[in-house]
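Deliverable D5.2: sample structural annotation.
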Amino acid sequence: MNPAALQHALQQHRAWLAKERGGARINLPNADLQGAQLPLADLRMAALPGAKLCYAVLTGVQLYQADLFAADLTGADLRRADLTQADLRGATCATPALPTPPCAMPTCAARSSSAPI
């Protein structure tokens, strides 16, 4: 996904979260977001099933109730990310930078391979 399209989708999502006119929930199934720079982004309730977020910078990102079903988070920087109630079924999360406790995905910290959850 090109950076301009991603920024537009993020802007619409922010408006949707604020219940502003013209807002739309971000819905990017199977999106290629490898290496995306999204620190501190507000992606609460975002729909990102199957997204490729390998090596993305997601520090401090709000992913509360986000749909990350089967997403690939390999190598993503998830420090201080809020994954509360996020759907991580089937997600790959082999990464050195997992969220600090409380952690919504405690089994990932023990994984050393890129095996699915």
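Annotation notes: DSSP finds one helix and no strands in the chain. The two ends are 25 Å apart (CA to CA).
The annotation will be released with the project's public dataset once the embargo ends.
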